[in-house]
Structures are given as structure tokens and as C-alpha cells.
Amino acid sequence: MTTGQGPAGPEELVEQFAQCVAAGDVAGIVGLYAADAVVSLRDGREAVGSVEIGAAFVAALARGLDLAAEPAGRPIVRNGVACTSTRTADGRVCTQVARRAADGSWQWLRDGFRLRELRIEEVTRAGRDVA
């Protein structure tokens, strides 16, 4: 049972992500990630933490990247950790690791592929715009 405001299960992360992307709601997207989350960017670089992740998604949306995704299968859940997977419109499968917070809600901790097309320069520029 969830007492917090976040997703009650890891499958809801994917649903809420899709809603936030459709609405252009970067704050909502960032809220789906833990404060210490890591998102992979292009060339092996990573966005770490809420500020960098927010800047990455601002840049991605500004660039017009298609971030739409749907579930690629049911989450695998064990001991408060889950692996979620999504399929993008072009057929790529993306994987994420989520964890259950103390309040029972779920947040992504690691997102390995969602922003691969984004250059670090775009994230840095977007970070300056956000700050």
C-alpha cells in the first residue's frame, strides 16, 4: 500500500512517464526519478540527480526527441527493487531499475537508454536555462 504521492507500483512509472511526456511536464518526469538517480546520455555520459536529469529532459523536449514509450513487458520485482522495460516507437527496448521508497511509492533509480540521442552540450545548455 502506498501512502506517498508517487506511483504505487513500478508499472505505474511507465504510465505516468507517458502522461508527463505528452504534457511536456518536466517536473513530473523528474519526480519519477529518485534524487540520486542516473540517466544515460549519448557517448557514455550520464545525468546524475534531479537537476541534471531535469536539464536533460528539458533539452530532449526542446530538441523534439520522441520520448513516447509503452511497456515492453511486466516489471520484474523482488525485495523492493524492480526492472521495468519500455518499447519506443522505433522498436528499441529501454530498461530501467526502480526502487520502492520508504513511503511505498516507486521511483526509477537507473535509466539506461531513454536519452541516448542527447548530446551533453545540449544538457549543459538546458541546465543553465533551468537554473
Major sheet summary line: 7 strands, mixed
Radius of gyration: 14 Å
Provide the number of structural domains.
Answer: 1
CATH domain fold name: Nuclear Transport Factor 2, Chain: A
CATH architectural label? Roll
Task: Name the helix and strand elements from N-terminus to C-terminus, one letter apiece.
Answer: HHEEHEEEEEH
H/I helix tally:
4
Beta-strand residue percentage: 25-35%
- CATH top level is Alpha Beta
**Dominant shape:** globular
- Measured distance between first and last alpha carbons: 36 Å
- Structural class call reads alpha+beta
Report helical residue fraction.
25-40%
Outline the low-pLDDT stretches: 116-120
Average pLDDT works out at 82
What would you note in describing this structure?
- This protein is globular.
- Strands 1, 2, 3, 4, 5, 6 and 7 form a seven-stranded mixed beta sheet that branches.
- The protein has a single domain, classed as Nuclear Transport Factor 2, Chain: A (Roll), CATH 3.10.450.
- By secondary structure, it is an alpha+beta fold.
- The relative contact order is 0.25.
- 35% of the residues lie in helices and 34% in strands.
- Helix 3 packs across helix 4.
- The protein has four helices and seven strands, in the order H-H-E-E-H-E-E-E-E-E-H.
- It comes from Intrasporangium chromatireducens Q5-1.
- This is SnoaL-like domain-containing protein.
